[in-house]
Amino acid sequence: MGKQGQIKVTKENLLQWIKNYRWMVETIEEARQPVAKMDNNSYIGAKIAMYGIEATLPKASGGISDPVFTEVQRRVYALNYRIKEYEQKIAEIQKRIPSVEGDREVEVLHRLLDGDSMRAIGKHMGLSSTTIFRVRNNILSQMMR
Predict the structure, then answer these.
(1) pTM for the complete prediction?
(2) Are 47 and 66 in contact (CB under 8 A)?
(3) CB-count burial class (<10 Å; 0-12, 13-18, 19+) for 64
(4) I want to staple 143 with a disulfide (CB 3.0 to 4.6 A). Which of 32, 33, 48, 96 is the partner?
């Protein structure tokens, strides 16, 4: 990440983002779940013991004693900046998908975005690993235009 949250787009970065695409999308989906739970008030407020020995114990001052709420907050804050970064990287790839031309290139790109390995793609398409690497390099060149 550079100045003002801008991401630098290089061939190397694009390649890495394509490799990481699937898990970045999954991480964003996962991260949005606790945020939604917090927004509908289900984790807002501390639980206060009303009966038993807990009710006679002093209450903690200044903090929220609900461990689930605390955990949700930790996840939200820990993930927040990373999620924004992932969203930028994913958007950058998505913006460049239409610039990829050629049946082979489009097929290889979508399989890479789905998380398939180079070997699996080559096997599926009946192409050598050398050809797949060449196709991948074409994809990167087209996306950098």
Answers:
(1) 0.68
(2) yes
(3) middle
(4) 96
